[in-house]
Automatic annotation (TrEMBL):
The keyword Oxidoreductase is assigned to this record: yes
UniProt entry tagged with the keyword Nucleotide-binding: no
Keywords: Oxidoreductase, Peroxidase
Residue stretches making up the Carboxymuconolactone decarboxylase-like domain: 43-122
Native source organism of the sequence: Mesorhizobium montanum
InterPro entries assigned: AhpD-like, AhpD_core, CMD-like, Uncharacterised_peroxidase-rel
Domain of life of the source: Bacteria
Molecular function GO terms recorded: peroxidase activity
Name of the molecule in the record: Peroxidase-related enzyme
């Protein structure tokens, strides 16, 4: 049972959140539980959607963003986010099962993406305390400083969604994927 109740429908959400939830529903076909939960605070929903939209305009491709989300969700043992990003990774980013298993282990079967996922996992595990060698490794793989900043911001956004889902015990509305098991 969720520890923070969410609006059952968009019309049950605070008025200031309703238009944002309708936009999410238009884009995804549904308003997932995470978005309805966060809608209890229109400011939090606006911030989450704003950062997500801004990062989608960045230079990291969607598959790499999903890879990072999977790595961070596994580190934080967030069932909701693992479930959502496994679904999104497969259905929107075109990742296969083997790739998503690797991502959850902080790796990738794609050479360039591997450096981003490895770096993101290190940032998440070490709470930002990475060394010069970590920065040099991601740079050698072809990422510039702007992309490194985007990787860190994706980690931060995913940590936030992991934490809010764990705090609220959000009911999973995607096919369930548990931490520490194969996708």
């Amino acid at each position: 049972m969720p520890r923070i109740p969410m609006p059952k429908t968009i019309s049950d959400a605070p008025e200031a959140s309703q238009a944002m939830l309708k936009a999410v529903e238009k884009q995804l076909g549904i308003a997932p539980n995470l978005f309805r939960l966060v809608s209890r605070s229109p400011a939090a929903l606006e911030g989450y959607l704003g950062m997500s939209a801004a990062l989608s305009k960045g230079r990291l491709p969607a598959p790499t963003r999903e890879r990072i989300a999977l790595a961070v969700a596994e580190i934080n043992e967030c069932t909701y986010c693992l479930s959502a990003h496994t679904y999104l990774g497969k259905n929107l980013a075109g990742l296969d099962d083997a790739e998503m298993v690797a991502n959850r282990e902080g790796r990738s079967n794609d050479g360039m993406a591997a450096a981003a996922v490895r770096f993101a996992a290190k940032v998440a595990r070490e709470r930002g305390h990475v060394g010069e060698a970590d920065l040099e490794a991601v740079r050698r793989a072809g990422y510039d400083d702007a992309q490194i900043i985007e990787i860190v911001q994706h980690v931060a956004l995913n940590v936030w969604t992991n934490y809010i889902n764990k705090v609220a015990d959000t009911e999973v509305d995607f096919p369930v994927v548990q931490a520490h098991q194969a996708a």
